[in-house]
Each structure stands twice: as C-alpha cells, then as structure tokens.
Amino acid sequence: MAFDGTWKIDRNENYEKFMEAMGIGMMKRKLGAHDNLKITIQQDGNKFTVKEASNFRNIEIEFTLGVNFEYSLADGTELSGAWNLEGNKLVGTFTRKDNGKVLKAYREIVGDELVQTYEYEGVESKRFFKRG
Length: 132
Known about the structure:
By secondary structure, the protein is mainly β.
C-alpha cells in the first residue's frame, strides 16, 4: 500500500507552536523539534502496524481502521481515538484523556513525501517525512 515503508523526518512546519498549544514545556518542545523520528508503516487490509523510533522512545502501535484504541504521546499525554481512511488520506480523531479536547491527525502521501498534519485548538502543524 502507499503508506508502507520506512519514513524519516525531513522537516517541520509550525511544530513548536503546536507543541506549545498541547501544553508541552519549552525544554521538551526544543527537544521534540529535533526528535529524529523514523516511522515504519505496514498495512494489511484495514490493519496497520506503525513503529515509531526517535531519540526519546521506540514503540509499536497496532490499530484497525475505525476501531478506537489508546495511545500515549512522547510527552506522556494519553489519548483515545481511531484512524480512518478518507480517500488516500489517513484521518485520526483523538480525544485527550486529561482535558477532553480533540486532536486531529492526518497522514497522506504528497509526491515522494509522507505529510503528517496535526490540528489542536486552532493550531496546525506539519511534519514532512522522506522514504528511508
């Protein structure tokens, strides 16, 4: 599938402002902007396995499209939600467990890049990944 493969972070757009809106402290924001994130995605029908490797942690997440699951961000923020496929775009809707606010996430292939977009409290951020 189009998302399958290993993707390495290339650049960020408005990522520190997004982390600030999420309530992440300045030191963690500075470190997070340079996390050296690598994502490996495997799709088997409606099931996805996503491995995230960064300077901070290595985790593996398995999810099925449309099925809620629990997830913790690198800063420890706990979320509950689901990914869905809308056209050629993965769309995630997650609710923070601590304050009930919604985080939207999108993954799509644009040209030769994986573009991951986040929306939270009116702040939008993008992270661009190259195949690696």
